[in-house]
Write a structure and sequence with these properties.
The chain is an alpha+beta fold. The protein is built from 14 helices and 15 strands. The chain folds into two domains: 246 residues, Bira Bifunctional Protein, Domain 2 (BirA Bifunctional Protein, domain 2); 65 residues, no CATH class. The strands form three sheets. The protein has an eight-stranded mixed beta sheet with strand order 7-8-9-10-6-2-1-11, with helices on both faces. Strands 12-13-14-15 form a four-stranded antiparallel beta sheet, sandwiched between helices. α5 crosses α9.
Length: 335
């Protein structure tokens, strides 16, 4: 993949903020060392909800639920959607020097996800890379995000050993309970874990880390140089963490406090949309309406099940606006 030297950091039981500040600080420091790329393998010691850089926490999560259940909120520098991060996950961060914007983000994912995908294949799992996800037979086991930090392109992702689908859904800010029930149903169907996919149930985070390291070395065709925490630029780390702990980092002035979520992506090509005007919730998969839930018995809405969203208005002109919104979100769900 590269003639650069590759460094490896293995850091366990990190506070939720440090899970993100560590790769941010390293990417900043390594931007001055163009011959070095870096991989971080980390775990956390607490539950947290992490939103992408462009998301709005008021819109995304039930803040009171998170407070009551000791779920920390952390905005990250990278893009991507809302995720629940917990102890039973291993996080990988791939820092690719001199690959910041305008390097195509698709190229970043293609390079960074080879290692985790190879790890899963080494477990005899039928995994594949689907743009910015790693899937096993159409079920997502690793979601990712990316960012440009100074001169570095950074890809962050996780491997799910296990996942609490219900906890994730309960922490969401939703427009209706039908919306929440659809999320839970589809998350259980399409978000998978090592516990689900492997015949043995006792896999540990230490084993995942060891095998991930081996897989990265295999696809890179070189040994990773193990580095210690002390090698990290602590001044830069402290500077980044000071920023992340500020209230304005998570709750920005421009974020609407009363904004209601109407869309959530389950995986590439699958999303749930709430139409406020119709008071109905729609599950769309690969451009087709798979399910509709509504408090009202509306025969016209029920007729939309099974339809291609790009052709709704041809048969039902009164739903032209609905089609336009769904098509927009369909495009989002594939990015």
């Amino acid at each position: 993949m590269s003639k650069k030297e590759w460094h490896l950091y293995i850091l366990k039981d990190l506070d939720p903020i440090r899970v993100h500040t560590i790769y941010h600080a390293l990417a900043t420091s390594l931007s001055n060392m163009p011959d070095i790329n870096c991989i971080l393998l980390t775990t956390t010691n607490k539950s947290s909800m992490s939103c992408g850089f462009h998301q709005n926490f008021y819109e995304e999560v039930d803040i009171n639920y998170c407070k009551k259940n000791d779920i920390q909120l952390v905005r990250r520098m990278s893009g991507g959607g809302l995720v629940l991060l917990e102890k039973n996950q291993v996080f990988f961060n791939v820092i690719l020097n001199e690959m910041a914007f305008p390097v195509p983000i698709k190229k970043l994912y293609a390079l960074a996800l080879q290692g985790p995908n190879q790890y899963l294949k080494n477990l005899n799992l039928d995994s594949s890379i689907n743009y910015n996800e790693i899937v096993i037979k159409n079920r997502k086991i690793s979601g990712t995000g990316a960012a440009s930090i100074e001169k570095a392109g950074v890809v962050i992702g996780n491997i799910l050993l296990d996942f609490n689908h219900k906890k994730f859904c309960n922490a969401l800010n939703v427009p209706s309970e039908n919306f929440r029930s659809l999320i839970l149903e589809q998350a259980k169907k399409y978000v998978t874990t090592l516990k689900r996919e492997l015949p043995r149930q006792n896999i540990s985070v230490d084993e995942v880390i060891d095998r991930l390291r081996f897989a990265f070395e295999s696809v890179l065709n070189k040994k990773l140089r193990l580095k210690e925490f002390d090698d990290i630029n602590l001044d830069k780390l402290n500077e980044v963490e000071e920023e992340y702990t500020q209230h304005y980092w998570n709750f920005r002035k421009r974020d609407a406090i009363d904004k209601t979520r109407v869309y959530i992506k389950i995986k590439n090509g699958a999303f749930i949309y709430h139409d406020t005007r119709l008071d109905a919730d729609f599950l769309i998969t690969n451009g087709r309406i798979k399910k509709v839930k509504s408090l009202y018995k509306n025969s016209e809405i029920s007729k939309l099940v099974g339809m291609n969203i790009f052709k709704i208005s041809k048969k039902f002109p009164e739903f032209k606006k609905l089609q336009e919104v769904m098509v927009t979100y369909c495009e989002h769900s594939n990015n």
